[in-house]
Amino acid sequence: MKASRRADTSAAPQQEELQQTLIQLAKSLIFVSSKIAEGAGLSSAQWALLDQITHSSPEGVAPSTLAGANRTSRANVTKLTRRLEALGLVMARTHAQDARQRRWVPTARGRRALARLNLNKTRRLTATLEHMSEADQAALLRLCRVLLVRLAAAPE
Hints:
The protein is mainly alpha-helical and 156 residues long. It has a single domain, classed as Winged helix-like DNA-binding domain superfamily/Winged helix DNA-binding domain (Arc Repressor Mutant, subunit A, Orthogonal Bundle). The protein has 6 helices and 2 strands. The chain has helices at residues 2-39, 44-54, 63-70, 74-86, 108-129, 134-153; strands at 90-94, 102-106. A hairpin with a 7-residue loop joins strand 1 (90-94) and strand 2 (102-106). Helix 3 (63-70) crosses helix 4 (74-86).
């Protein structure tokens, strides 16, 4: 009984340190993404929308769909997409069956910008991971997959 209590008390500081480390990791990844986006004259939110618009159907994506996927208002999505439009990265199209509906589609310039952003992200992550052994990378990948599954399954 005493041995298990000792294990329990030593596990609590470790779990707390792990939680704090995960929070710091998330913040660091957000910071890196922000810097990459800023380098292209975008915010992280604009980069995320450009990515979603680029990977949507060829007919485009409705502002309400973007708002729902990002848990934000249509007004916020409109503000962000208008900035992307002003930069020539996306354009609005009317829906084929309902001219009242607008759909956002990427421009060729937007596709190129997204490719550059993603390349910069990949380079940055590769430079970070290259200092880890293959075994450490494989272990990290397994743990990240577990965390992602559990986070997705957790109640809100």
